[in-house]
Write a structure and sequence with these properties.
Largest sheet: 5 strands, parallel
GO molecular function, one term: kinase activity
CATH superfamily: P-loop containing nucleotide triphosphate hydrolases
Strand content: 5-15%
Keywords: Kinase, Transferase
Bound molecules: adenosine-5'-triphosphate
CATH topology: Rossmann fold
Pfam families: PPK2
Number of helices: 14
Protein name: Polyphosphate kinase 2 family protein
Domain Polyphosphate kinase-2-related: 51-264
Number of domains: 1
Length: 288
């Protein structure tokens, strides 16, 4: 199964990418239950495992390149409000790859030490080494999202950060990191359902945080802050992808495919060994 369905999936990059011009994407108008390039959520669940072999193969090539003289890496930035499914992306998408080649980092409220530095300090320290795929569960974007909505810093401070982020990401890309930025967007109703489910189930209570309701009360402010992020930081070198996330299966498939596309674009081969294969074969044969 799946050839045609997989071919249709090739349109996902264009379908979900946010163009560089401000106003290119209208967050308020998007259908968060949509499944672009896929028939429905059930189909998405069937398709994702079909991408696993290629993803693992390309990851291994990248890792091998990094172990020789390669300088390239990939960084997946995962953003989204509470319940958007960030954790599920990390578990299920990153779970399709070899943990050895991954560098997974989550960013919570800055520690006292982190607060002593520029907001990008902790991000720089967490960047993937050559050959690795970094996954950021939240990121430097919190510094123009929660910091803006909760007024943690003065407006002129967060205002200046959009340009700082763009400059930072341009440098990263120039130094060999392919950046894939995904914003998982659930509808207000779906967020309500997911929070209510957490409070109803003993095995989900640990995921609930009373501050989730406070964040929900500022829904509109967060949407406006996300819209500003999309307007000001979706650069051609590192565009944003907005993922309709009411279906977890769809969101996971979409992110898997975007990551796969990023790896494909690197045109990864296998490194040439720095030893003579024939000589080594002969040496090995003598040890039989
Ligand atoms: P999640 O909600 O992502 O599952 P969590 O509830 O387990 O995570 P943490 O990962 O410890 O909590 O922290 C997430 C919280 O940290 C979020 O409320 C987020 O807004 C906040 N946070 C992240 N980065 C910053 C930042 N730069 N400044 C202020 N708060 C931040």
């Amino acid at each position: 199964m799946g050839r045609k369905k997989l071919a249709r999936l090739d349109g996902i990059d264009d379908a979900l990418r946010v163009g560089p011009e401000p106003g290119a994407f209208d967050l308020a108008g998007m259908d968060r239950a949509a499944t672009p390039c896929v028939k429905d959520a059930a189909t998405a669940a069937e398709l994702r495992p079909l991408l696993g072999d290629e993803l693992a193969d390309l990851q291994e090539r990248l890792y091998a390149e990094g172990r020789t003289d390669g300088t390239r890496s990939v960084l997946l930035v995962v953003q989204g409000l509470d319940t958007a499914g960030k954790g599920g992306i990390v578990r299920h998408v990153a779970g399709m790859m070899d943990p050895q080649g991954l560098a997974i980092r989550s960013f919570g409220v800055p520690t006292p030490e982190e607060r002593e530095h520029d907001f990008l300090w902790r991000i720089r320290r967490a960047l993937p080494a050559p050959g690795r795929i970094g996954v950021f569960d939240r990121s430097h974007y919190e510094d123009v999202l929660v910091a803006r909505v909760k007024e943690l810093v003065a407006p002129e401070v967060w205002e200046a950060r959009y340009d700082e982020i763009v400059a930072f990401e341009r440098d990263l890309v120039a130094a060999g990191t392919t950046i894939v930025k995904v914003a998982l967007m659930v509808s207000r109703d779906e967020q309500y359902k997911r929070l209510a489910a957490r409070l109803d189930r003993p095995d989900k209570l640990w995921k609930y945080n009373p501050s989730d309701v406070d964040t929900r009360l500022q829904w509109d402010e967060y949407q406006a802050a996300y819209q500003a992020v999309l307007d000001r930081t979706s650069i051609p070198e590192a565009p944003w992808y907005v993922i309709p996330a009411d279906s977890k299966d769809y969101a996971r498939l979409a992110v898997t495919k975007l990551l796969l596309d990023a790896l494909r674009s690197l045109d990864l081969g296998w490194p040439t060994p720095d030893y003579d294969v024939d000589v080594e074969k002969a040496r090995l044969a003598k040890t039989r």
